[in-house]
Amino acid sequence: MDEDKKFYLLAEIAGWNCSNYSEEYGAKIQNSSAYRTLKYNIPEAEGVFTQDAKELIENYNNLDFNPSTIKECFLLEEKVNYLALHSDPRFYINPFSIVPNYIGSISSLGDLALSINGKDITINEIIFDDSITIEDKKKVVEEKVDYYLYDFEQLVSEAIGNAKSRTNQERKTQNKFFKRTILKFFLDIFLVTFLLFIFTFPNNLFFSNLYNNDYSKILTYVSYIYPIMCFITLIIDVSFYSYRARIYEPINYARRFLKKNSDLLFQSLKRQKEKLLDYIFGAIQTRIELINDLSDFSILSTSYVSLDKIVNIEKEVKKLKYRRLSDISTSLSYASLGVLILTMAVYFISLSINLVI
Amino acid sequence: MSLSIILLIIAPIFGIPLFLLPDNKIRIFSFSFITGFSLVVALIVLDIIYNQFAIRIAKGIYPAVGWFFNNNKELSINEKYRIIFSFVQILAFLLGTIISYVTFNTIYIGKNPSISKKNNQVLNAFWRVIMFFISYLPVCYFLICIRGLSSLSDGFMKPLFNLIYYIGA
């Protein structure tokens, strides 16, 4: 904090209106090296599945660079400095939730930061620090690994929450989609049944009109439009629901899996924690530097469920391709319902008056 | 437009899901279609083993659906019975498939979609081929069996249709 700001802060406390200066400082903080570092580090944090990374991004997005008082300026600057420091991946990366093929600024478990006696220090530094006893080293590492496990369990809970549609809003959306799917399914069944009916029901009017096209009759047009509409609707519906099934498969699979095996998943997390502890304790005992082992203990995509895919499903659903296909499918259903009603009307009127209309 | 062309045109409806559905869903659908398909085969086998099984089943149903054939003077009564039996078969296929889909969707867990993709590609392709045939063939068989009701011509696959089900036998 520079001297000017200290002065204005004092003046503000004394009752002076310093809002003009606060606006000036907002822009200054935005040009500071701390903010530039923070801005540079954020894209990397966006690809990481940890609560710390999530909080970092949330805090970054909530930064308000229009402070109305010097006090707010001061707090903003402190916040930017804190976030800039903790935007370094070594503070927020969790070795249990490293995405496959992760390429980032750190590559080793040894680069992860721990806090010991109020000081931030990396695991590799701890290994070679003779001023700390082995017991203390193990204790601090165990605390951190416990935190990693807790953080990862939060992610798992979130994923399971997604799989079980935790909120009312999610349930409402899913119920709405389910109802729409059932309606469309019955519409498709009805479209095909009626198509089968008009092509098999003994009726000379229909077939004679079909083979001797009279373009002054509505039946001629609907006889062609209806089967084509049926075919296109079925193709689009089948494509959309197959594509949707592909997108939702990780969540559907997780739902099926977790119904019976959620204990299995949490037990595997605990086993992984033990493995990680053994690995780091071994390095502490033998004083070996940890290198290129960051993703060795990741369980983000285990043989059980792919939590990263589940967390990312909402992004897939918001993609243009999905939305377009969904819109086309819905629009076609309405269109085919219209054509179905028209065809039924024309067909049954023709049948009842025994004259093609 | 002939029935042969129609059978070819509807093939993509059964083919598209093979490329889009995930492996687990392919298996769930395959198991379900196998149930439906088995019911159709079982009815055919029963008809072969027990003399006039199809006719006896159709005779029981005829009073309820006979109105549909009132205007049809071309088909013999036995052919009408055969067509009714085809409807019974396709209904058994659909019901068997739907019921077993609900069951398998609940009990079948499958493999992690992110991992199973990389392994067992031959097995996955095999299930896709199986799914196509056991879903497409019963529908084709049904349309071939009921073709006597329609004024559509058989088209270039007429010899094959006559081999599967000969009208006027």
Structure description:
The complex is a heterodimer of chains A (357) and B (169). Helix content of chain A is 73%, strand content 2%. By secondary structure, chain A is mainly alpha-helical. Chain A has 2 domains: 3-92, no CATH class; 162-353, no CATH class. In chain A, strands 1-2 form a two-stranded antiparallel ribbon. In chain A, β1 and β2 (119-122) form a beta hairpin. The radius of gyration of chain A is 32 Å and the shape is elongated. By secondary structure, chain B is mainly alpha-helical. Chain B has one domain (3-164). Chain B is built from 7 helices and no strands. Chain B has helices spanning 3-20, 23-49, 53-65, 77-107, 113-116, 121-145, 158-164. The radius of gyration of chain B is 18 Å and the shape is globular. The model of chain B has no long low-confidence stretch (mean pLDDT 89). Classes of the chains: A mainly alpha (357), B mainly alpha (169). The interface between A and B is medium-sized, with 31 and 30 residues.
